[in-house]
Amino acid sequence: MSEVRDRPVKRISRPVWCAAIVVALGAFLANMDSSIVAVGLESLRAAFGAELVRIQWVATAYLLGLSAVLPLTPWLTRRLGAGRLWLSALSGFLLTSVACALSPTAEVLIAVRAAQGMTAGILVAAGQTVIGLAVGPERLGRMMGVLGLVVGLAPIAGPSVGGFLLARFGWPSMFWLNLPVGVLALVLAVRFVPRGERQAPPPIDWSGLLLVSLGLPLTVYALTGIGIPQTSHLLDGVLALIGVGALAVFAWRTLHTPRPVLRLRLLARPVPAAASSTLVTAAAGMYGAVLLVPLWFQLQLGAGAAETGLLLVPMGVGTTVTVALAGRLVDRLGGGPVALAGALLVLVSTVPWPWLGPGTPMIAVQVLLVVHGIGLGLSLMPATTAAYASVRASELGDATALANIVLRVGGAAGSALTVIVLAQGGFRAAFGLLAVLAGCAVLAASWLTRAENGRKL
């Protein structure tokens, strides 16, 4: 591969920008829905008279549905075309939103949320494929930057909008909110989103699909369950072993079958392998920090839930604003150098945390959070873009599925490890773990930089 630094930036046409913005609306919906429901769990518990551990499944089912469907998206992309698949997923997301709002019992809501998670998983992965096919590798950074900017607004706007709706209109409003934005995106998509080319995909490897569709949700569920109080961690451990075992058999089968359900051989190439390593370590650190920092504010400083939310806003704003700039940098420099700079910022802003305490000036804490948010904005999206830009158009569906799987598993593993270390060693040890993960992300991003430039470690 030739040197990627200082590449000329090509102009993006207006129709492509329109398609990207519409696709970004779909990803915004999927992420906002998740953040609003997280805020509304207590309202759901009270409305259905259920225990919190049981109602937690409203959020967990969504995550499991999303994870389960990702391996099937490459086959569906080839069968229907990326744009048609995205339109179908958006329609399904809106229908399941209506079904959620009308659910008469907690059990029905949990089942429908699993279906909604499946449509959300396809919506995100197919949307990224649509963007990648529309712009090509030379301009993908800017497009992914726009997508990241819009999607990044979801966790910022979701809790505040959700809190207002819950107070005024009750829990069904969380799901009715999806309709106006979704219908607008659907109308615009009919005009602006390219349908994509239909291909004759090979027959589905049903055994492989069963293994990965079982192993991936079980692994994510078990790792997520470790962080939930009042759950059986012994059961989580057993499910994790079953899930990892199923994934191991799936990987072996995939490498020995001519028509796999998911092209894992992409990871044998230097850039996708290095990008996936960067994503899994950066995602583990990010999800660990998202879990740990709020607890630090509440348990170390005595902040309430509302105050904690306000204290975390600078980190979210730093990430969201930086993503758009990162996209332009990726198109000029490549994903590796940008991801490396981001990983270094995350490391620098994480190392001081083990020594912070109640006497630390709040301005210093906020500066660290802003730098941390900027680092996240410069690391995750560029690594994802590097993975997508390194594959052929026919392989893009597999690349998007793999990247999203890596993000989910990395995030769940990071959260689980953080909870375990926090319980055993306290905040200092837990922040030390995050520093180690940040250091691993720096090494992975360095590998990615060298891989993009055609050099070997």
Question: What does this protein structure show overall?
Answer:
The chain has 457 residues and is mainly α. Helices cover 79% and strands 0% of the residues. It contains 17 helices and no strands. Helix 5 (82-101) packs antiparallel against helix 6 (106-135), helix 7 packs antiparallel against helix 14 (305-333) and helix 16 (362-389) crosses helix 17 (396-452). The longest helix is centred in the last third of the chain and has 57 residues, at 396-452. The radius of gyration is 21 Å and the shape is globular. The model is unreliable at 1-5 (pLDDT under 50).
Individual helix count: 17
Name the structural class: mainly alpha
- The percentage of residues in β strands lies in under 5%
Q: What oligomeric state is this?
A: single chain
Largest sheet: none
